[in-house]
């Protein structure tokens, strides 16, 4: 029986398959060309990593003085503002020390006032002794004038001369006392006298200890790792809790060492957090490069000087600053995972190894306790100095 003749559709099937394959190949070629153009124009400048995490400052709260905890005003997860009270320590001992220092300062002022007043006393004594010397000299002169007449005995003249020598010695002693007292008082005032200044410094010291019995938040942020309880006896430097300022976070993106050659300070970065997904995109910019790889700062650094050494591509943390406005709208937490993409197209910025200029001037202390202590010391001095 002869084979049936192929139909028209069966005859055209190979041609359709060839045409479909050709179209498919052309589409793949066009897609490859489009991707190549996109890579050449845009993608080749992008460096990405998913080994990135949110970082921030964890500020330890420690007391500057020791004492017994009387009150704890915050709990973990609480949000506090700078200056808010965190922990109160028992102030009884510090208050007693302040009272003693105030009394010592008042006593020192009055003792120094006595020194200044002694100048006038010694000066008056000198005038009295000088008057006695002058009187004895006049008496001797009168007696000697009439001694030849026999009206005055020689023994009386000798007694007068002895009295004159005693008066002259007393005058010399008074002058020495005045000179010694002026050594203590010349060139200074009661307020600047060393004894008064020492007592005032002691008052400032005790006042600071009294004021530091209240532990306050140094910055605004969220409370974490609270481990202090009421009634606990704490020593200076004991960790009580931590404050994390959530408005000043950044991202540490760990890039492979081969990805760092074209990175520069100021380059833009786009980031997504797993907590929000791809619907929220954070923007930032590169601010610096870490001082070493993660392996270099590990607790147990790798020992590569062995016979079985295998090269492992290292990663270096790149710090990326976040937009504070975006942090306010979409808060992050320390340690969250991030996906980072850095555009290295603009390579005109400073290299990541730049040296940052620092302000070498000491920042002024925001603690007003020392000013309060000095004001209190001046108040005590004025109250005890009287009228000069």
Describe the structure.
Helices cover 42% and strands 21% of the residues. By secondary structure, it is of the alpha+beta class. Strand 11 and strand 12 form a beta hairpin. Helix 2 packs antiparallel against helix 3, helix 2 packs antiparallel against helix 4 and helix 4 crosses helix 6. The chain is rod-shaped and about 185 Å long. 17% of the residues are buried. About 2% of the residues have low confidence.
Rounded to an integer, what's the Rg over CA atoms? 45 Å
Note the gap between the termini: 146 Å
As a percent range, the share of helical residues equals 40-55%
| Beta-strand content | 15-25%
* Structure class: alpha+beta
- Lateral arrangement of strands in the main beta sheet: 1-10-13-12-11-14
Shape: rod-shaped
Mean pLDDT, all residues? 83
User: What is the H/E string?
Assistant: HEEEEEHHHEEEEEEEEHEH
| Low-confidence regions | 360-366
Number of helices: 6
Total beta strands: 14
The description of the largest β-sheet is:
6 strands, antiparallel, barrel
